[in-house]
Amino acid sequence: MPTDLKQLSARLGLSATTVSRALNGYDDVSAKTRERVEQMARELGYQPNRTARRLARGRADAVGLVYPLDAGDLGDPRFLEVIEGLSDRLEADDMDLLLASARERTELRTYQRLISGGRVDGVIVARTRVVDERIDYLQRVGVPLVAYGRTAQPDGFAWFDFDNEAGMVLAVQQMVALGHRRIGYLHAPLSLCFAAQRQAGFQRAMQAAGLAVDPALVVEGGLSHRTGHAAAQRLLAGPTRPSALIVDNNLCGMGAVRALLDAGVAIGRELSVIVYDGVPDDVLRAGMRIAAIGQPTAYRAGETMAEMLLALMRGEPLPDRHRLLQPVFEPGNSIGPPAAG
Amino acid sequence: MPTDLKQLSARLGLSATTVSRALNGYDDVSAKTRERVEQMARELGYQPNRTARRLARGRADAVGLVYPLDAGDLGDPRFLEVIEGLSDRLEADDMDLLLASARERTELRTYQRLISGGRVDGVIVARTRVVDERIDYLQRVGVPLVAYGRTAQPDGFAWFDFDNEAGMVLAVQQMVALGHRRIGYLHAPLSLCFAAQRQAGFQRAMQAAGLAVDPALVVEGGLSHRTGHAAAQRLLAGPTRPSALIVDNNLCGMGAVRALLDAGVAIGRELSVIVYDGVPDDVLRAGMRIAAIGQPTAYRAGETMAEMLLALMRGEPLPDRHRLLQPVFEPGNSIGPPAAG
DNA sequence: TTGAAAGCGCTAACAC
DNA sequence: GTGTTAGCGCTTTCAA
């Protein structure tokens, strides 16, 4: 049995109240008493019982993270960095991080379980969708939330996101500057918000460049190696090959690059490639570096979201409820001018 | 405010006691009463407050998973599957999964926080070490635990593991059967239990085959792409190249394979390669499949460990406290007879 | 079969 | 400054 507050206060000849206050940093405790209390607490290795504290305070001191397995997030190393940043920052405030898995179909119910059971008092919503019932639900019940990504109506809640549209514009501009006109586009399901935004950027930049978007060159590539691989093959099999290809996510990008290599396509000469979020160098052919649209470290994203959520849970006003980070273009040797002809 | 037990019982004209019992499946409640209670609970969307229940029952209804960031687990897709299996199974028993990150140096303290604060009542210990103070600590304080991997003294606690030694013996036997005699070995830090076991298998199988282990061909390759890459380069630069190479983990294996490809080594002809746990096909050159020692799905491993831990926490005797799964050899075209000369 | 009462370990009004 | 008292919302003896 670990020492409890009663024992501790008995040993000190003080009331539990005083001890509690001393330990929780209230200022109506004499310096001397606090000193003694802290000393003794250390000596006995006293750790307040979390559950009791939670019940008394009416807070769960925990935040929930539901990861939709179907979405393939688990395979995304960037998302893992996000988790890392999240949990590190939460831990600093002595908050627990509850991880719940969910198939997309049961996801909402998972949130409900977490919320109405009082297991968490704040939530991180990952992989936002253009229309997102999870966020609607959380807002309706008034649970503090920070979304990792926006939705179609992004004003009512706090979020952290990268400027996906601007990022994709960068990608198109690179290709256009090199002289490409037939630009192919491989994208994740457009119900995902980031995919919709990136596609909007694609359309906008193409139009701005006076280029037509050839529907035959726009392919849904899913959100995994496998689907990306298959989609790239479909694209290659089409009547007119593009001279440039932009892939809107790294998972599918990896599969696509693989497919191109398999098909013997000379990346960067026959076909220029940019992958949003990039492809790790070490999975590629020697010396190859895929040009990318890069995002500032995912770890920081996690930290920042934790920070925002903590403030919300404390009821503090958030200086900026919306953080939109600008992606940057990261050069590579996977792009070049279109092949003659 | 969600409905609480008091409101629910008031609505029913029953005491909280009875309602609680009805809902928790006690048998001293009349069928009719139970019926009514369940009906009304559903109607009001009653969800018992977890914190209160926890305090009353003296259990946390949660298990902790501390992942050592330094170890590179986060990058290991297999470990993520394990988490998936774990959380799915725990959820079925209405248990929370607490995720805590930790640098190796602060790891023990993280466990202490979880335990003595009563945040969890059971723990999964990942990446066991040959001498593992975490397990010593947990046993000392009597917390139910299931280890993912063994230690040097594996008898006192429940664990789930693959037969690493046997797996590595398989790998060596394959190489030997093909006629290899100069077999190189790239391994993770030997303080990690799986690495030590696999190395033991390597030594044993080499000896059994009457082959000497050339110290120059045994290189520590770490537990990441980067270190594996570097280690393979070191090996290639050595005075006598091996004709076969075995890598004891997938992370480092990926980097090593990359390094070989970069160096223009004809894998499977100039140099045969087996990677423990395998390298995903889609990161390789077209048509290449790295021979591997494979382990039954990691998802099942997670599920099984959850199952074991749940039983332990319920105080049930565990039919088999130790689960040792046999790995299998998975063929590929990365191996062949040694090149002539 | 049901209810009253006590208590899980802590925090927070309120009084001294 | 410190102590008294009353909960937080549930479970669980113990009586009825």
Automatic annotation (TrEMBL), chains A, B:
Alphabetical UniProt keywords: DNA-binding, Transcription, Transcription regulation
Protein name: Substrate-binding domain-containing protein
Domain HTH lacI-type as annotated: residue spans: 5-57
PANTHER family hit by this protein: HTH-TYPE TRANSCRIPTIONAL REGULATOR GALS, LACI-RELATED TRANSCRIPTIONAL REPRESSOR
Gene3D superfamilies assigned: 3.40.50.2300, lambda repressor-like DNA-binding domains (1.10.260.40)
A Pfam family per the record: LacI
Domain of life: Bacteria
